Amino acid sequence: MDSSPDRIANPWGERTPYAPGDPWPVRTDLHLADGVAQEDVERWVPSASILHSNGDAMDIAVRGGRIVGVRGRAADRVNRGRLGPKDLYGWQANHAPDRLTRPLVRENGRLVETDWDTAMDRVVSRTRTLLDERGPGSVGFYTSGQLFLEEYYTLSVLAHAGVRTNHLDGNTRLCTATAAEALKESFGSDGQPGSYEDIDHADTLALFGHNMAETQTVLWMRVLDRLEGSDPPRLLCVDPRYTPVARRADVHLAPRPGTNVALLNALLHEIIRTGRVDRAYLDAHTVGYDELAAGVERCTPRWAAEICGVPAAEIERAADLLGDAKRLTSTVLQGVYQSHQASAAAVQVNNLHLIRGMLGRPGCGLMQMNGQPTAQNTRECGADGDLPGFRNWQNDQHVTELAEIWNVEPDGIPHYGPPTHAMQMFRYAEQGSLRMLWISGTNPAVSLPELGRIRSVLAQERLFVVVQDLFLTETAQLADVVLPAATWGEKTGTFTNADRTVHLSEKAVEPPGEARADLDIFLDFAARMDFRDKDGGPLIPWRDPQGAFAAWQRCSAGRPCDYTGLSYDKLRDGGIQWPCTEDAPDGTARLYTDGFDHAHPDRCESYGKDMVTGATVTPVEYRSLNPDGKAVIKAAEYLPPHEDASPQYPLQLITGRTVHHFHTRTKTGRAPELNAAAPDVWAEISPAEAAAQGLAAGDLVQVTTPRGAIRARLRTVAIRDGVVFVPFHYGYWDTPEGHRPPDGRPGRAANETTVTDWDPLSKQPLFKTAAARVTLVARRGTPQPQDTDDARTGSTA
User: Fold this and answer.
1) Across-strand partners of 29?
2) Per its UniProt entry, which superkingdom is the organism in (predicted)?
3) Could you tell me the end-to-end alpha-carbon distance of the chain, in angstroms, rounded to an integer?
């Protein structure tokens, strides 16, 4: 057992090497509060991580009605007992003294405590008034990637069939909307094809814009253990920064931000040119290969080298690595998803696997990764605005089927056009057509781009803002009603990780004060609104998590994400991958082992979109292209970024994460070890870039873009010349100003500077395409450990 004496300095713990095809050895990680020994623990309650997307299974230690630590679950398929730093220390946020314990309402410009009836009466009254006077389009819901499946499904029903609004989305729009879009474009449906166990079998690993070492620390432990074992896999890293992944890579490509499509087209070009494609697989299972081959014919490594700033010889080496693989596993994350041509680039990674026939077999894994612990559930349940169960809003039969499940009329479910994405909802609020926004479990006043604009939207008097959260976040401080929510460990529900593994998280302790589970809040709202089905019965008849789960099982039946074979009792023994059915009672390790049934025109979640404009493909066009339901190979032409470096703004700004924090630090910033490891924002540039500008590590600098500016301590690190990196976690809740920069001066939230722009297909904001400059504010004073490169492990691009 690893008792984890210091998992800040060593986030990945001790190695347990293993050979290809062998099971990953067990290593049980444990962290308990000071003064608490294992024999002091009264109960161990099963759960999984809520602070990243890996789905690390753990047991919550309870003593005296309080959480006092966590222990990895050795038998679980995801982590085999291991926990990362955020797992080990993040639970302490539950006990933070500034937890919200009573509802708040705005009176005379100030938020004051009140009772639940008063708060909910205001919410219900405003909802009814707006529905009567302005209709469903005046109400919107913006949720999270951190609630439970049962809560998302309940929200989806009340929004789609109760309020009947098309304005419903999650902050998964910021992190994994492109993952979902890329899967739909290539395979007709969301759902990760691969499994974490593919790492156990792969001879080649390719990580595209994915600093797994920090975003999924336990999955990186699995990779490290393979790399330290016999016959290790070869590793390709594509990232403009020299991350921990890059340091272990056989080939590291560091392209200019915004040029991923050019690079991927060159890799496809080389694999096709050298004849390393699986023609039998292509003929049997795909459409569109000839168009791809023609589209990349001119995309030579030399051509891409000019665009990407990567040596042509290195592109050729990477193509050899991919083309010679017998068992290729690839992962993709924010370095692709939050950059220019996001969906087009992610689809090209799918194409790499399709042309090589690398799907559906052990070691041939493809994972368009998630960034949040329950992002997959947001998408499955329709809390991202799509129809639940991966149903197609353009397919009338799918709408009718859903209406039968909910016992409503089909025209009562909005499907007149695509769901409204988050960025468009804020634009509607800015313009005045959206008058109420209910925000649950997310903090857009720090996480959305161009924060000055977002704050002004949320502060409008005509916009009624409801915030449901644990703390008085930067967003909550701008709300009209604040509802105190329970969190992980304080409620029961299920959630699904990035390789489709479903875990049960059981209630371990009571929430503080009057805080309520998100499910209870949504059910209370639905009851007060008196939402009814077409026969006059309650639209939402369930009253607890088990009832919500049973309702979801009925909704998922026969769909790609089929949960009908699962149960709470079954999940108490460990995580299980969907689809789990009577025919597959132990779950399904890999999708697409024998074709692409989900891509059939009658079953597919989406008919696809144009790779340049994002225009929706019609049902007739899709049936003509893909009548038999095969994987669709889609070519994409490289287009220059909308905003690029210039003499005034000579650098390219990219934002990302650090190993110690999650999103806007509402939890990790309240965990002492995590906060001490990374207490404040910083900026990274290369030593050559710093020398050219007369800057040195530790200087206080200002990072400026056409939108705004922030100030941060400078770190000189291994990163592409011409690029500046800033972690996006830091807002203002722990500063005297509370929710904004001081007196209009430069702040510390990276999104003060990012651009209001999004991918045309996935509508995911582009956080990695801003033009910027870095200037000196003050020379370094007394050296601080957090200001030096030695204090860091690296941060994801």
Assistant:
1) 2
2) Bacteria
3) 33
Handedness of CA 569, 573, 575, 577 (dihedral sign): negative
Sorted by sequence, the CB contacts under 8 Å of residue 187 that are 6+ apart come out as: 193, 350, 591, 592, 596, 598, 599, 631, 632
Total length of the chain:
797
Instruction: Provide the residue type at 579 as one letter.
Output: P
Cβ neighbours for 350, distance < 8 A, ≥ 6 positions apart: 182, 183, 185, 186, 187, 366, 368, 631
pLDDT along the chain (797 residues), means of 10: 71 97 97 96 97 96 98 97 97 97 97 98 98 98 97 98 97 95 98 97 98 97 98 98 97 98 98 98 98 98 98 98 98 96 98 98 97 95 97 97 98 94 97 98 97 96 98 97 98 97 98 98 98 98 98 98 98 97 96 95 97 96 97 98 95 96 95 96 97 96 96 97 97 88 89 96 95 96 45 37
Neighbours of 158 (CB within 10 A): 22
Block residue for tokens 């707006």:
130
Amino acid at 323: G
Residue type for position 337: Y
The whole-number pLDDT of residue 795 equals 36
Alpha-carbon separation of residue 749 from 210, 324, 395, 532, 725 (angstroms) = 22, 44, 42, 43, 13
pLDDT of residue 736: 86
Q: E strand or H helix at 428, and its extent? A: helix 422-431
Are the C-beta atoms of 198 and 363 separated by less than 8 Å? yes
Whether 562 contacts 581, CB under 8 Å: yes
Q: Helix %, strand %, coil % for the chain, to 5?
A: 35, 20, 50
Q: What secondary structure letter does DSSP report for 475?
A: T
Specify the DSSP class assigned to residue 661.
-
What DSSP element (H or E) covers 314? Answer: helix 312-324
282 and 357 Cβ atoms separated by less than 8 Å: yes
Nearest Cα residue to 174 out of 461, 449, 505, 405: 449
Helix (H) or strand (E) holding 727: strand 723-727
HEC string of 161-208?
HHHCCCCEEECHHHHCHHHHHHHHHHHCCCCCCCCCCHHHHCCEEEEE
Distance CA(388)–CA(408), nearest Å, equals: 15
Distance CA 732, CA 735 (A): 5
Q: Which residues pair with 112 in a beta bridge?
A: 105
Instruction: Answer whether 102's CB lies under 8 Å from 79's CB.
Output: no
Three-state DSSP class for residue 331: strand
* CA–CA gap between residue 499 and residue 329 (Å, rounded): 13
DSSP H or E run through 221 = helix 217-228
* Distance from C-alpha of 460 to C-alpha of 588, rounded to nearest angstrom: 48
Structure tokens belonging to residue 254: 């560091």
pLDDT value at residue 785: 42
Q: Are strands 501-505 and 576-577 parallel, antiparallel or unpaired?
A: antiparallel
Residue 536 DSSP label: S
165-195 pLDDT, tens digit per residue, is 999 999 999 999 999 999 999 999 999 999 9
Parallel, antiparallel, or unpaired for β 501-505 and 493-496?
Answer: antiparallel
Percent of the chain surpassing pLDDT 70: 97
> What are the two backbone dihedrals, phi and then psi, of residue 206, each rounded to the nearest 5 degrees?
-130, 120
